[in-house]
Amino acid sequence: MPHSRQTLLRERDPHGHLRVTYVELFFDLVFVFAITQISHTLLAHFTPIGVLQTAILFLAVWWVWIYTTWITNWLDPERTPVRLMLFGLMIAGLLLSTSIPKAFESRGLAFALAFVVMQVGRSVFTYLSIPKSQPAWRMNLLRITIWLSCSGVFWIAGGFADSAARLVLWAIAVAIEYAGPAMRFRCPGIGASSLQDWDVEGGHLAERCAGFIIIALGESIVVTGATFAESEWTAAVMIAFAVALIGSIAMWWIYFHLGAEAGSDRISESEESGRLARIAYTYMHLPIVAGIVVSAVGDEVLLAHPDGHTDMRAVLSIIGGPLVFLIGTILFKRVIRGLFQLSHLVGIGLLIVLIPLAHFFSPLELAALTTLVLLIVAAWEAISLGAIGF
Hints:
The protein is an all-alpha fold. The chain is built from 14 helices and no strands. 76% of the residues lie in helices and 0% in strands. The chain is globular.
């Protein structure tokens, strides 16, 4: 469709869904790097405090990406002002990503400033881009900007604070960020947004989130390949390499074979696209991505010492990654299909049973068992829903 001269909003086709533009895919490259930084930071700081710190950084990275995805669902990335806004976000996002490893050390302020500039700047731009003929939509963006500005105070204050205080202040900031959509950005005097104000084109949002899953899985494969390339190619390492790669394939199969397409169809046909987008994609995709990132750490631990001792780091990453992934996937499919997949419930149960038994196995044996569980879940779901496709 031709661009409207009066507005930067996307023009929607009632008989199809919005395509993902090349500039959106280009924007995602910054987050390929961000996910890599997150997984490496977790591996280097695998302590209770380190895990908590990395979790806060991951929550921030996901939030800035998903908010931008919502905005590009509303604004047309093919228009030059929107495209320039995305390029500006990429610059700030690269600063954000490069600050991740030392965000709780010397680069806290850089991380905080980059994050706040991305969140608040994008929301202000969108508010100014929405025509005055859309007062409800403009008010929605005003509420969002107010909430993000409030959380921004804590982000920047944390950037100036020492490491311990920074953790507390940034935890408060994350809580504000994540409470916003759940509370529909309620503000004193101007009330809360309605779900109609969050109307989205579901197919586009589903495709964008599926793309982020690919980014996370790609990080897992890159970690596996890079670690394998630098390792001595013993029989154990070669088997570990195969196990790690098959695990990534199994996670792809569980999410994409049926779930991604079903989610796209469901949200595209729904009259409550805003509600589904908020629950199924904004919140429920978070543990899916987190599980893949933790699994990537587990793959690196596995390849480093496949026959070594299974310590707590190995248990939490090798079992914890697939466990969090399956929990996120079952919740996502529950929202989409209205039921809990039995295959996923059994897979979650089997992984939980493995936790107290993990010290009896080497990392390679433990990883083989978790990969087997993922394969069982993938095959069970496909068979039970008659979707093998042979």
